[in-house]
Amino acid sequence: DSGVTQTPKHLITATGQRVTLRCSPRSGDLSVYWYQQSLDQGLQFLIQYYNGEERAKGNILERFSAQQFPDLHSELNLSSLELGDSALYFCASSVGGSLGLQETQYFGPGTRLLVL
Amino acid sequence: ILNVEQSPQSLHVQEGDSTNFTCSFPSSNFYALHWYRWETAKSPEALFVMTLNGDEKKKGRISATLNTKEGYSYLYIKGSQPEDSATYLCAFCPGGSEKLVFGKGTKLTVNP
User: Fold this and answer.
1) Average pLDDT of chain A?
2) Which chain B residues are closer than 8 Å to A100 by Cβ?
3) Is A44 touching B (CB cutoff 8 A)?
4) Are the Cβ atoms of A42 and B45 closer than 8 angstroms?
5) What is the edge-to-edge ordering of all strands in the sheet holding B56-59?
């Protein structure tokens, strides 16, 4: 158990819908990262928050958005869902911000999203 | 576009065999390299974070080396056990970037 929690574990929804994925980082970690794992793709970095502020952006679609709240939990909002958005979405946390990439990242169990 | 290549894609070994696999990354502008172990139905678990050229890290029977000048890292597993079966991921972070670029992994199966 990494100490990072993600809910829900599984989500089935229809195209065009909107969903919210939730992540709670390890106690003491200020950075939260979101990743997408699609079939045949490596883990793709989406976005990072550090202490409530957006720190870095990866290949995140405009239909997706995220935020980190004062209690440091984070939510990833996916809207106007398409079939191709079906994937495993991971959240990870680390202690630091820019130095976080020289630190260990701890991954949550993931949310498996299926868009029908 | 940054390319992180891992080879081989998959590997089958017998229990007790030692094995190794490679992660290749751009040799310019290096910041950090991460190795993760990802068991089926679980989440990736950090093995090593490597930052210095020539670094060698060890955790039990697993060790890793880093060559930033030529852009590669090796992961070694000594005396493989069935519980070592997993996908091993490497992730490269270039300097000036706040993001990890992951390879597609090497899937290791250790047969008893």
Assistant:
1) 92
2) 98
3) yes
4) no
5) B5-7, B19-24, B72-77, B62-67, B56-59
A chain contacts of residue B49, beta-carbon cutoff 8 Å: 102-104
Nearest residue of chain B to residue A112 (CA atoms): B41
**Gap between the Cα atoms of A115 and B46, Å rounded:** 30
Give the nearest chain B residue to A55 (CA atoms).
B98
A101 contacts B46? CB cut-off 8 A = no
Whether the Cβ atoms of residue A12 and residue A71 lie closer than 8 Å to each other: no
Which residues, 6+ apart, have CB-to-CB distance to B65 below 8 Å?
B54, B55, B56, B73, B74, B76
Asked if A101 and B32 come within 8 Å (Cβ–Cβ), the reply is yes
Dump pLDDT digits (tens) for B12-51. 999 999 999 999 999 888 889 999 999 988 999 999 999 9
Q: Taking CA atoms, what residue in A is nearest to B103?
A: A42
* Cβ atoms of A46 and A55 closer than 8 Å: no
pLDDT per position as a tens digit, A65-115: 999 999 999 999 999 999 999 999 999 999 886 655 678 889 999 999 999
Distance from C-alpha of A43 to C-alpha of B64, rounded to nearest angstrom: 21
The whole-number average pLDDT for the span A27-33 is: 94
- Least confident span in A17-26, A65-74, B88-97: B88-97
